[in-house]
Each structure stands twice: as structure tokens, then as C-alpha cells.
Amino acid sequence: MLFRPPWRKIEDIGEYAETLGFEEESYLDLFQAVMELDKKYRVPVLLFYYERYSTAEIASILKIPEKTVSTRLFRAKAKLKNYLKEE
């Protein structure tokens, strides 16, 4: 069974972006948009899409129901879509 390292806190967002190694500028633009989300949406997005945690794992980490994680991911995607349309 594979275990993921515990969630780590990186103070410098630029440092975190560098660890992800974006291949295209559009990925960096999307990441910057994610970082502008409210924390309650940003954290689930980072854990799910960038760190590849499941919704169940995120629920356990954040101590919230799994359905809440799914709802926050859905709402975050809608916010990102609107934000990126404006640019």
C-alpha cells in the first residue's frame, strides 16, 4: 500500500509553483487563479488536482464531509471559469 506524505505547508507560493514545474504559461495562469480563490476553495483544489488526493482523503485531512469537498470543488471550478473568462 502506498502512503502519501502528510500535507506540507509551503509559505512561499512561488516556491510551490516551482515544485509543480509548469510546462506551459497557461498552466501557470490557471495556478495563479487558483491561488486567488478563498482558502476554503483553494485548499481542496490544490489537494485534489495538484497533489492527487481523493475526495475521501481530503475530507479526512480537512475534517469535513466528503460531500462538502465535492461541493467546494464544483464551486471552485465555476469561480475559476468565470475568473478566466474575464481575463
TrEMBL record:
Source taxon at top rank: Bacteria
Positions of the RNA polymerase sigma factor 70 region 4 type domain: 30-80
Stored InterPro entries: RNA_pol_sigma-70_dom, RNA_pol_sigma70_r4_t2, RNA_pol_sigma_r3/r4-like, WH-like_DNA-bd_sf
GO biological process terms, semicolon-separated: DNA-templated transcription initiation
GO cellular component, one term: DNA-directed RNA polymerase complex
Keywords annotated in UniProt: DNA-directed RNA polymerase, Transcription
GO MF: DNA binding; sigma factor activity
Protein known as: DNA-directed RNA polymerase specialized sigma subunit, sigma24 homolog
Protein species of origin: Roseburia intestinalis XB6B4
Highest classification ranks of the organism: Bacteria, Bacillati, Bacillota, Clostridia, Lachnospirales
